[in-house]
Amino acid sequence: MVSDELRRHFLDDRFVARVMARYRLGCIEETGRDRDPEHEGRMRRFKTANGSYVLKLHHEYTTQEVMTAVEAVRGHLRRNGFSTPGAVRTQRGEHFVDDDGRLAAVFEWAEGRHSHHNSTVDLCEVAEVQGRWIEAMQSFDDSVAISVLRQIRRRKTWAWIVPLDDLAGAVKKLNPVEKVRSFKTSASYHLTYLDGMAQVESRWREYCNMVKEHDVQDLPHCVTHGDLWAGNVLLGKKSATVVDLDLCSYEPRMADFARMAAWRYDLLQTEGISKAFSRFQSRTFVDREEIASIPVLMVSHHMYYLLMHCLLYTDEPEGCAGYLVEKTLPSELRAFDTVVSHFSDIERALCRA
């Protein structure tokens, strides 16, 4: 039996019926459920006489305040010629439904081909979309939405949405390394993981010096997508469509490009980063100071996952926690070290673009 508490995290037929009754969509037919493990049970696709739609159950930590801020971002993008699926209004004119504390929304279905994260050509397309995003968001001046999106906020039981220039604030608030050290378990690999915490702390000190040297918090900021990688960009014949704006943050405007460059550095290397950045700059001018900050923001991406995986260790069953010890933590440490060792090469490649 599934507990009532667990059931609240997923779409069930009765909940779907109650939510869809709030909309004027006419006769609807369910055409699919999300099979992505990350979203399983949280999304359903429907077809009506007027088109196709997606019902999305938002994460239990999402608030009405955040959803309103994200909707303000979505509206601004659309007014500035950006393609992103709009939230359908309910019969009462609302952008989302609050059903006993469970927040859900219906979005227009977006057509297009998912860009491929293993294709340098597609990643260059994504880089241009990132440049267009910054171009559009320079004029976004909704102070209420910005105030909401610049905060560290809960994302999952073990993860937070953290602006890349505010990791120090997140570490102070979450104290991940100390939580691991105080975590009680008899697992044989626990001492190995505790030894790994010393390496995490060493990288953390190195990272803090980088951030201070490059004045990351003084860089130009804007509202970023927060997860603008290949999976969230649909490529069409005439234009690209951006989806899943849930992780929007107010942070250095180069953060989305840096995340992608860090995540796929194994594929792109310095030559690929140069090509992608050239496409990025075709839409947005970047000065030398911002260029120099990109390797630091790439390291920030890996540091974020190092710290979040520390917290995940205390939240996982033993088999999964063992995998973190043997695979995930060493992999994240190597990724951090790789970018640090290639700092100068990356900066030169960006300057050539």
Give an overview in words:
This protein has 353 residues and is of the alpha+beta class. Helices cover 50% and strands 14% of the residues. A hairpin with a 2-residue loop joins β2 and β3. The radius of gyration is 21 Å and the shape is globular. The N and C termini lie far apart (57 Å).
Oligomeric status: single chain
Number of domain units: 2
Q: What characteristic shape results from the CA principal axes?
A: globular
User: What series of H and E elements makes up the topology?
Assistant: HHEEEHEEEHHEEHHHEEEEHHHHH
Number of helices: 13
The CATH H-level superfamily of the largest domain is Aminoglycoside phosphotransferase (APH), C-terminal lobe
Percent helix, as a range, is 40-55%
Structural class by helix and strand composition = alpha+beta
What's the CATH architecture of the largest domain?
Alpha-Beta Complex
> What's the arrangement of strands in the largest beta sheet?
1-2-3-5-4
Describe the sheet with the most strands.
5 strands, antiparallel
Number of strands: 12
List the uncertain runs. none
- Rounded mean pLDDT is 89
Proportion of residues in extended strands: 5-15%
CATH hierarchy class name of the largest domain: Alpha Beta
Task: Measure the end-to-end span.
Answer: 57 Å
Quick summary of this structure?
This protein is α+β, with helices and mostly antiparallel strands and 353 residues long.
Question: SSE layout and pairings?
Answer:
Blueprint: H1 4-7, H2 13-20, E1 29-33, E2 43-48, E3 51-57, H3 64-79, E4 97-99, E5 102-108, E6 113-114, H4 120-137, H5 143-149, E7 153-154, E8 160-161, H6 167-174, H7 176-181, H8 190-214, E9 221-224, E10 233-235, E11 240-242, E12 249-252, H9 255-263, H10 265-281, H11 288-313, H12 318-341, H13 343-352
Helix pairs in contact: 3-5, 4-10, 8-11, 8-12, 9-10, 9-11, 10-13, 11-12, 11-13
